[in-house]
Amino acid sequence: MTSTSTKTLVNLLKNPISIKTKHQAKQLHAQIFKTETPNSPFFVSRLVSVYSNFNLLNDSLHLFNTLDSPPPALAWKSIIRCYTDNGLFVQSVLFFVKMMASGVHPDHNVFPSVLKSSTLLVDLRFGESVHACIVRLGFHLDLYTNNALMNMYAKFQSLDMNTNDEFYGLEVSGGHKIYVHEVLDGIPERNGDGQSKSVLVSCNEPLDHTNYWKHGFEESVVGSDDNVNLHCVELPCSDGARHVDEGSCAKTNSGRRLQMDSVRKVFEQMPTRDLVSWNTVIVGFARSGLFEEALEMVREMGNANLKPDSFTLSSVLPIFADYVDVIKGKEIHGYAIRHGLDTDVFIGSSLIDMYAKCTRVEDSHRVFGLLPRRDGISWNSIIAACVQNGMFDEGLKFFRQMLLAKIKPRHVSFSSIMPACAHMTALHLGKQLHGYIIRNGYDDNVFIASSLVDMYAKCGNIRLARCIFDKMELHDMVSWTSIIMGHALHGYALDAISLFEQMEEEGVKANSVAFVAALTACSHAGLIDKAWSYFNCMTRNYGIVPCLEHYTAVADLLGRAGKLEEAYEFISGMHIRPTGSIWSTLLSACRVHKNVELAEKVAEKIFMTDPDNTGAYILLTNVYSAARRWKDVLRLRIHMRNKGLKKTPACSWIEIKNKVHAFAAGDESHPCYDKINEALNVLLERMEREGYVPDTKEVLHDVEEEQKKYLLHYHSERLAIAFGIISTPDGMTIRVIKNLRVCGDCHTAIKFISKIVQREIIVRDNSRFHHFKDGKCSCGDYW
DNA sequence: TCCCTTCAAC
């Protein structure tokens, strides 16, 4: 090729498709270098374009900088697209601004890249300026430009904007924070005075390793100024990877920007539309929750003789996941199979998710098993599918398999798997994950931090949960509710309430779940007036319609306070149909307050809708035995046996050195049973010396008094605690989990034990945590 | 040159 003529080179460059490899591109470059005019704008700008087609950003930039100004539009466009393809959206946008300032007339095909970059920068004002620019230059009829425009507006409307509307944070791991000021002023009129426009950029640390700034922008880099309207974005790390797609917009509960009208407007004025146009509108509607509109567009698309492709299907499937409509979801699945799209990795993930949300997790497994290729998202989908359906062990199994398959977990993976640890109260697993998170630098991610807060709170370590919460830079709704709920469950109602108030002071408006947390706090501490004020405030001032959880917290509170009739009226007056579970709350209160009559009435309500509700039978049995109505007890027991209903056996467990030890009541099977028994007897002796008197009323069997004492002595939580005491060093906190409510006598006994052994003992029962310390419990004996 | 999938608090 050494003797290639200039004419041949020109022809080659005019038809760059014939250049198939990077190597050929470099050879071409070398040949041009040997010609008489290696620096001609034609050669250079064409070469820039060739390099940018191969995504060779540095080579393209190097050539671009050899051009005498003003470089031709083709060269600008190539660089801008290359920046966008490398995920360098700030640079892409700034290059566009600089191009406009240099007076070059852009051609239409620069706009899709610029719009994509401004979309991913989450800067609506800039995007709108670009739109104005497009109209001004007469490119508003261009198909690709319009598709990109619609996409931009659709993305903006589906993001939850921050409360103060000034900061649109994109989370990108390992990146710098770049502040872009006044970018929009940088778009001058065509042939306008570019010099008068400014592009101000600042960064939170020196950009020493990012050579992108060496290409014409040093003069624009200024120190950050808090007085300037800042639009904060993160610059991806220097490897140029496209991290932003995997990031997430900082969420708040402020109002959404409804931009679907803009999307619609663009769509309607388009002279021609292709499949991408339709898909863009469909996904826009789907993301903004306008599901019916999205589905209507799919039908209209058919009328326009366009067939749904893999983009359409994977955008539509999440709609049926949200609607929990497995019939429609299956229709899509069928369509995908008929058109050979069922092995598409995008559709596969949507299908896994759709089946999981419809509680058909076995179908999720099947889809996952049939996928020929699995990416991080398919793995996350199957992990989330398991966890969301309560299959925690399975979820962990998939998580381990994913690591073995050398798929690096991302923040989504952690927030999918962490609830499994929280639900299983598997502190050692949670800690392992936390270690992994710290080692890989994910601990500043708000989603991950929130799941950690929730996990530690649910696993009994509220102090660590609080510590992580306090270290978070930005608190979103979920982290607030996690920490409030955490304190509520641990009985620290006043802390929970003050956190709730702090949240409101910081401008985060409480949502429905936050009120559940606040009401739960009140319910666990018996704060009736406070609960009513929250409940009324929520419905009147916040326009939140109470749901079952709110009603349950209030009913529970009324019941515990002995206001049984009031609770009955409250439940009967709910705007939704009372469930068995909320009636059970009251039934439980009837047991505490020994109201047999109301208990029978309430049980009747439960059995009407749920005749096999074992819990209700047990509660009613307890009510009868507390009232010493042994005949009724017997009658119910026989009835239950005939129905094949069994009482859940009490069970407690404790983690010692990452191993879980479980105990049933009166359980003698543990290898260390002799030592446990010995410890229990020593404890009992010291407890009685301190004034402990067994409360045999808690034993609901019709047996002798001595027998009752014996039964209490071997309740499962006491076995677990005794084992904890003999297996751990002095002073170490003991954490025990029980599947049922702690009985009154054990509660008293554990208070004594905490004082005698001088340890903090934390017991989680089926609804809350008890922190026993120095003979007192955090629940204030109200649970 | 443009469009798609996964996650946290109840």
Automatic annotation (TrEMBL):
GO terms for molecular function: RNA binding; zinc ion binding. Keywords: Repeat. GO terms for biological process: RNA modification. Residues 691-783 form the DYW domain. PPR repeats lie at residues 72-106, 274-308, 375-409, 476-510. InterPro entries: DYW_dom, E_motif, PPR_At4g14850-like_plant, PPR_rpt, TPR-like_helical_dom_sf. This is DYW domain-containing protein. The lineage of its organism: Eukaryota, Viridiplantae, Streptophyta, Embryophyta, Tracheophyta.
